[in-house]
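Task card 7
Instruction: Convert sequence to structure tokens.
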Amino acid sequence: MKSLNTAYLPFQLIFLIPGAALTLCGVLFDFLSPAVIRPCLMLSGAAVFLCALFLREAAKRRQADFANDVCETIDALMEGHKPENYRPYEETDLSKVQSRLLVYYNRMLEAKQESEHDRQLIQELVSDISHQVKTPMANIRMFTGILKDHPLTDEKREEFLGTMAAQVNKLDFLLSSLIKMSRLETGTFILHMEDRPLYDTIAQAVGTVFTKAAQKNIRIDVDCESTVTVRHDTKWTAEAFENILDNAVKYTPAGGKISICVRPWLFYTRIDIADTGIGIAVAHYHDVFRRFYRTQETAAEEGVGLGLYLARSIITRQKGYISVKSEVGKGSTFSVFLLS
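Output:
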């Protein structure tokens, strides 16, 4: 498409010639005879009339070209590529319209990609839920059939009922964890970020695992000044600490030790949660944060492999991060970093 000045240049010259002729006639009016002035005026008027017609047709062609170029741009975007006639550095009406269309196209593309990501996420969640729920449900169904169709001694009946109760508790824990996971991944939870003492949040998390730790004679030491204040969501952060501590208690042998050490840095506050448990191989540092990941060494312990995954998701959404260092057979240290 031609620019406005280039398209109108010939018609500007046509206007310039009769204009100059009329101006000259006005200057030399006293020296020219009517026989000369009359033809000049007639020719100039005809030239102006023709030029006006030409300009009108040129404007129509320009509008048609502009419409065609815009349609080509839209067709190209609909096919998923940039228009060939796009010149972002030109100061033309077409380039301005194309720029806005490209901005709109990019936003629609991002929305489409986000929608596709959400769709895949929902499919994965449904698949995970189906897979994880299947085992406890099958166990409950099996033991129900045994209790219903077979004569059992009171001792055996109590044993089966206890097993069913354990499966129900496992199913309840699983569904609770899945609900938390889905809320985190779909962004349907709200963080209430406040400047609060970190000691209170840690105490809340320790309180939830203290009984389990006492049963295994595991000591929990906390090194945190009561004056250390961090901007965080107390409820969800306590949930993250609880998940890390629960793993520490679960995989630390009886008589072991768990230490929590808080150290404020310039931009972050570091919280180290160290245990004397079975440890983690270096090759599995990243795996332990995956959803439903469990090693062969931990398969015998209760759990579904969501604790560390949830902990990392919670901390990440508060602009923090988690790292781990471990030595097999000697213990692990999970380091949580929260913005100071």
